[in-house]
Design brief:
The chain is α+β, with helices and mostly antiparallel strands and about 325 residues long. It contains eleven helices and nine strands.
Length: about 325
């Protein structure tokens, strides 16, 4: 935007300059006063835009701003892929009987799977009486020739294969729109980089884990979308979703591996584990969180050099695990 305003002012000023004439043979001059005044006004606007640009750059490189942006991307991905009220036309893979496989769509180049147009895929499968089975998910890296979609049912035609291939969006870099794990990895990376020897900023790491805990607790509290999209009671699209346990593993493993020198960050990780474990209604997620809390306590006992911090973290992990187990028992979970 700033570059456009500067360029427009420059081109406008050049155009006005061409219309200004000095003394000619008749002794006449022409100066477009209104146009010149507008050029001066645009120059003043350019100064204000430059000040805004410098302020924006200074704000955008701050850790808090970056963390907030990634947190919002994670929130948007959770709302898109794990809505609180899942749409109709879904079923479990165990309930779906797939017709014979007719063809396999393969990638035409190496790249990252950015996502698939679910609505267009279901419409295409319904129109041709097909079932499309994704062999990869958003965030996976594929090579040229790797299988990406299996086509079941219907008749194999080159037009259908080409259309299905166009539905799978391949790119060079991962994006968080349909890739929840990528947004989780970005926030975790902010925390890990803040804990590096050269940076040594445990407060930024703590804030990053707190941001992760708020969004992963929302994710854990929502139902996992079934893998099959149906239409007219027939399976049309079979996908693979990121499991909450994968996100939990990524975050709490990072706490255990990189944060032992900072009890402040370890307690933030334990707090994140407790929030996720008490928010979920899935016994598998609660059990996985309890396992990570036990590992954290064991690692603190072995590797944390601060005696008081070690005792506090071990006690906090035990208390968090007790609250998770009490919550899980209350909703009929594991023992």
């Amino acid at each position: 935007m700033v570059l456009g305003i500067f360029g427009a002012t420059f081109l406008y000023s050049l155009t006005v300059l061409r219309s200004i004439r000095s003394l000619d043979a008749d002794g006449d001059t022409f100066v477009p006063d209104i146009a010149v005044n507008v050029a001066v006004l645009l120059a003043v606007v350019d100064v204000g835009v430059l000040v805004y640009f410098i302020h924006h750059i200074a704000q955008s490189v701050q850790a808090g701003t970056l963390s907030a942006r990634v947190r919002q991307e994670l929130r948007d991905a959770v709302d898109l892929l794990h809505p609180d009220d899942p749409p109709t036309g879904l079923a479990d893979i165990a309930e779906a009987t797939l017709p014979p496989r007719r063809a396999t769509v393969r990638a035409t180049r190496a790249g990252v799977v950015l996502g698939i147009d679910d609505t267009a895929a279901v419409a295409l499968a319904t129109r041709h009486d097909l079932t499309l089975v994704l062999r990869c998910r958003a965030g996976d890296h594929v090579l040229d020739g790797d299988p990406v979609v299996d086509i079941h049912g219907g008749a194999e035609t080159s037009d259908v294969v080409a259309t299905v291939r166009e539905l799978v969006d391949l790119g060079d870099d991962r994006t968080p729109r349909q890739d929840i794990l990528f947004a989780v990895e970005q926030l975790t990376e902010i925390a890990v980089r803040a804990l590096s020897t050269g940076t040594n900023d445990p407060y930024t790491a703590r804030n990053a884990f707190d941001d992760l805990s708020s969004e992963l607790a929302r994710l854990a509290s929502r139902p996992t979308p079934p893998a099959v999209r149906t239409f007219d009671r027939r399976p049309r699209l079979v996908t693979t979703h990121v499991r909450v346990t994968e996100c939990v593993d990524h975050v709490l493993d990072a706490v255990r591996l990189y944060a032992m020198s900072s009890p402040l960050v370890v307690r933030a990780g334990i707090r994140a584990a407790e929030r996720i474990g008490t928010a979920t209604t899935s016994p598998d997620v609660a059990s996985r969180v309890s396992m990570h809390l036990a590992r954290l306590a064991e690692t603190c006992e072995r590797d944390m050099t601060d005696p008081s911090g070690r005792a506090d973290c071990i006690a906090a992990a035990a208390e968090a695990d007790e609250r998770i187990r009490h919550r899980t028992h209350a909703v009929g979970g594991y023992s």
